[in-house]
Amino acid sequence: MSANMSGSGSAPCRFAHYFVICGIDNETGLEPDALAALYQWLEADRQGRDPESVAAGENFDQSPLKRTFKSKVLAHYPKNIECNPFDQDAVNMLCMPKGLSFRTQRDSRTPQFHSFLITREDGSRTYGFVHTFYEEVTSPQICSAMQTLHQMHQAEHNASAHNCPSSSSSSSSSSSSSSSSSMDSLASSLDEVESPSSQGGRRSCGCSGEGYDSVRDTLYVSKAMCLITPMPFMHSCKGFLSQVHRAVISHQPPPLPLESYIYNILYEVPLPPPGRSLKFHGVYEPILCQRPGVGELPLADFPLSEAFQLLGVENLVQIFTCVLLEMQILLYSQDYQRLMVVAEGITTLLFPFQWQHVYVPILPASLLHFLDAPVPYLMGLQSKEGTDRSKLELPQEANLCFVDIDNHCIELPEEFPQFPNKTEFIQELSEVLLSFGLSPEGGNTSPDPAVSMQTSTLEKELKSTSLSELVDDRRNGNLGGEALDVLELLQGNPTLERLQALAKRTGVKVARLEALVAGQKAVGEESVGGRSPAEEEELRNAKLNVQLREVFAARFATMFADYESFVIQNSPDLESWLTNREQMHNFDKASFLSDQPEPYLPFLSHFIETQMFATFIDNKIMSQWEEKEPLLRVFDGRIEKARLYNVRAPSLRSSVYQKCTFLKESAQAIEQRLRKIDHTAIHPHLLDMKIGQGKYQQGFFPKLQADVLASGPTNNKWSNRTCSTQRRVDRHRQQNDHLVLDNELKEKYMQEARNLGKNLRQPKLSDLSPAVIAQTNWKFVEGLLKECKMKTKRMLVEKMGREAVELGHGEANITGLEENTLIASLCDLLERIWSHGLQVKQGKSALWSHLLHYQAREEKNEQLSESPVSNGQEKRKLESSVGLPALRVSLIQDMRHIQNMGEIKTDVGRARALIRLSLEKKLLSQHLKQLLSNQALTKKLYKRYAFLRCEEEKEQFLFHLLSLNAVDYFCFTSVFTTIMIPYRAVIIPIKKLSNAMTTSNPWLCVSGELGDSGILQITKNVLEMTFDSAFRPHTHISITFKCQNLGKLTTVQLGHDNSGLLAKWLVDCVMVRNEITGHTYKFPCGRWLGKGVDDGSLERVLIGEFVVPCSDDDGGRGTKTPPLQRSPSQIRRISITSLTGRGNKPTTVQIQESIGEAVNNIIKHFHKPEKERGSLTVLLCGEGGLVWALEQFFHHGFRSARIFQKNVFVWDFYEKVVAFVENADQIGDLQETPEPLDLNCESFCRYVNAINTMPRNIGKDGKFQLLVCLGARDRMLPQWLPLLAECSVITRMYEENALLRDKLTVSSLVAVLETLHDFPITLESSLTKSVEL
What we know:
Layout: H1 3-9, E1 18-23, H2 34-46, E2 72-77, H3 88-95, E3 102-104, E4 112-119, E5 125-136, H4 140-163, H5 167-177, H6 184-189, H7 196-202, E6 219-229, H8 234-249, H9 258-268, E7 277-281, E8 286-290, H10 304-311, H11 313-324, E9 328-333, H12 336-348, E10 358-360, E11 377-382, E12 400-404, E13 409-411, H13 422-435, H14 449-471, H15 481-491, H16 494-506, H17 511-528, H18 533-559, H19 574-579, H20 589-594, H21 601-607, H22 611-622, H23 630-645, H24 663-675, E14 679-680, H25 706-709, H26 717-736, H27 743-753, H28 770-806, H29 816-835, H30 846-865, E15 874-876, E16 887-889, H31 891-899, H32 907-920, H33 924-932, H34 935-941, H35 951-962, E17 980-989, H36 993-996, E18 1002-1008, E19 1011-1012, E20 1016-1017, E21 1023-1027, E22 1033-1044, E23 1049-1056, E24 1065-1074, E25 1080-1089, E26 1099-1103, E27 1105-1107, H37 1130-1133, H38 1148-1167, H39 1176-1181, H40 1186-1195, H41 1210-1222, H42 1227-1231, H43 1235-1253, H44 1259-1273, H45 1277-1286, H46 1290-1293, H47 1303-1314, H48 1325-1328
Parallel strand pairs: 7-14, 9-11, 9-12, 10-11
Antiparallel strand pairs: 1-2, 1-6, 3-6, 4-5, 5-6, 7-8, 12-13, 15-16, 17-22, 17-24, 18-19, 18-20, 18-23, 21-22, 23-26, 24-25, 25-27
Helix pairs in contact: 10-11, 13-18, 18-24, 21-29, 28-29, 28-35, 29-32, 30-32, 31-32, 33-35, 38-40, 40-44, 41-43, 43-44, 43-45, 45-47
């Protein structure tokens, strides 16, 4: 078998895949880091200079000891493995992210450990564990090269000091010139981290005494050893590498050549099987590792205790929430390992979900441009010691969670929902930490000096004991020797045993025998419970890890206990599902949310929109046809187990916190595995090596014999077993190939079906040419366009679906909460688009920064031309907007509205407010098109590859946004409820001039869902005259007022004081417009206001209807939303009494249907979520409302016409009933009536008299409306109807065929009205004002 084949055959089950050495190549010598050159190229491109013209010279400003030099992979074993090909560039970059660094004997040279991971295109991961140490440079060429570089640096420094005596001024000028650079600060933060001992000297590098002198100084260079493994066994790898390093620097050579230990871990140590533990041997001590079982949480060996101590519980839960909502998360620390621990810790806690986007826990210097990525990411950036966070400018911060690990603080995005039951959740996590003696607040985790001294002495003791253990390892029975034979002989001899017992009684000791027995007992105890402190510490960490993870897993198991019920599975096979994936709904989001407790909704409505949740549901659906994904299998098992143990209550809507019940069970499983080792790997042994090679030299890593390490054994049992298993799996796969969809096709479909970011989980590290960077950015542009298309389509479909429901088709599938989530998601997308390829970073919001630049230019042009800003303005006309002056449409005007809102404090908030306002005004696409029309500004602000400079994609993007004009949003009005808004009201009289004039004092009160304006007095006879398109004159009264946001307008109270000669006023309608959003409402009247005319009313309550805007070039023309609320028609307002002679009376069936419809609408209103109900006043008093329907009922068969055609109103009938009831002559009749009817009589009289005696003059129809509303509120209507039907007055005022005289109809109407008793009807103050009951 070839070396390659032996390496690959057993690779999937080997503990480690590669052993790698990185460092300086003595043959090629010192090379400047190529990645630094790439960075210069990127900077030139950013600054608008020609990148190709960047000088390729050296940077002599910097001390050579601070500069980065190119590292190389010096050796890796084996050469390659088929299942995990070796990526030399990526491994080199991640082993030494900053390249080679040099030290002298004056500097600290403490070895460092860090880990990394490489994510492959299919999402699978490979882990690397790196031990970096310093080795003395022995090559005279490199020492002299360093000496030369130092002399050149010194000459450069002296020359600059001579040219510019004030070094501070030069530094300040240079800093100001680069202050606009968003990447400069990042670059400086990635400079070599200096040790405290060297800082004082390095600050004055120009001084000859502190530089590098080849005669005086010893030069050291960094070198890295790395193990690459398929699973994250961090503790085991760290222990193995530190033992190898200890062997390198030890005074004594190791017991065996290093090749033996490396060969052993590469080829002879297997992966522990699931649910088992394994012991293998390092150079000096045994190493333990364990792997969770099939039903347990997956392996996670990075210490969560460290992550919690670094950040504190509350901070970590907040970061965790940001990760769940797929925001951009940037970790920041001096220590690579801390970056890795926090990143891996957080992603581990996501179970059963998985991060689906860019994941780079350690971001190499060459990939800084990747922070520009307009996609969700989780990245780690190394900081420089003493770097101030304020100097670190990032390309985009609107949706960024910045985690400063070393300073124990985080910066969160402005708006995001809290994790459900956050307080109780933090409490439970704190309890777990406290049970292990850790503080929930976190803090500095560096060990104190006394402890580190103890551990070093402990290590020495361990070293000596483990050496002797290797010589005489009783537990493995390798070397028993003479002592064991003696013990067996003595223990098996009954005569000697009796002698021993006699000797004990007399006090004589058999020393040798007792020592042997004690030794054997100690060995037995050690195999069960006697462990070294290091092993106890590892066990404690493992138990803490799993308990913390169980608490997180339990939260998801509670929240998603019934998720399966909402998964939509409607495909016959995998192929058809994959083909139609994008068009299909896989999860019934609306039903799921309606089943959740109210406090959970803000978080869950955001979370179920994420890519990680979509992938989780995809995996669930695919599990019908394929083997279940491991995380899903464990999660489903948990849910099933929970169902068995505790039967859920029928009502799911409970937000009571349930604590995790798996804590002890999971900790016990780990403890059992680590206390009782299941497998012991083959011991390291001498290999067939050439004599004389790899000679031991203290402090230097030897050159290993490549031929020995190139391939593994061909005859070891587990390797053969693995190979045969692999062959069996391959055969099985080949047999199933014809049944399952072709893998390439499936992968293609899956890549298409999943959102962007899937292909960009980790940037490619091996080839970083400018062409590759351009290609990556092009992928981002395509991804952003696709995301925009999907988001706008989703918003349209959901919104139109809801409106279809309101028109009576189908069922609603969107809630206001969901709508808000979609709009917030659109705001986030626009911020990411405006952040892509940004040249100059100003403020946290890239969009608002661009808008401010645009505003400054436009205002400058305005001052130059001394005329109002006309660019991009249009006048927006309204249907039926006679009397309202056209509202100017202008991006600058809308910006000024936002800037005047004192409630919004940040740029991100202002940008979001403008997006919401533009969306509500149906101007989002138009405003952004206007902003981008200034191409000179766009070119100045954005790089060539930016999304906003890709013309075709930009056009498509604006077109997708234009499609949102097809529906109505109230996302600005409903969110900014406390702001002051200017309104304009116009009262339009009936066209005859004589009717339009009034000498009395009119007043107005506008009410909306959020409040009312209060009474607004109008100056007498402020008649304005306007002309319509046919030059016909129109008169009206106009008033402007400012008040707190009223929300959607519902009613207008209009009245006057009846003073003067012309006190009668015939009003056509009132128009009211919100001057910020442009929303206009029409309040039809068509009635007289005045004494002795119509019903004698001096004030009327008018119900509003929304007027849809239409500009000449409105992209949404012809697709407008139906009106949200309708007002009663003017014909009805003239009073139904006047219809009696017109031959269009409604039939009895129509009247009964209209009452049923009105009651149904009120019941539906109360079944909607509270925040989405809208106005109840419209359902009571509007067209088709309850008042309108009952008015028809009471007018049926009503004798209204009298001599001289004076109309009689229903209210006249009510007054006569009251008079009849109160008349003393009729007391005898009433005494015969049953008691409940007597109570009903009393209440009816009380209500009618209260309405008649109130100071308001609302007319007879107004009084009827008020009585119906009060009766509905106080649940009296069904009690009053029988009284009215049985009163003798009815015979004089109603014909025989009247509905009110039909007992069957009255009893059915009573039953219908009683259905309203289950709901709390509240009335607007505009209706009930001044009524005393």
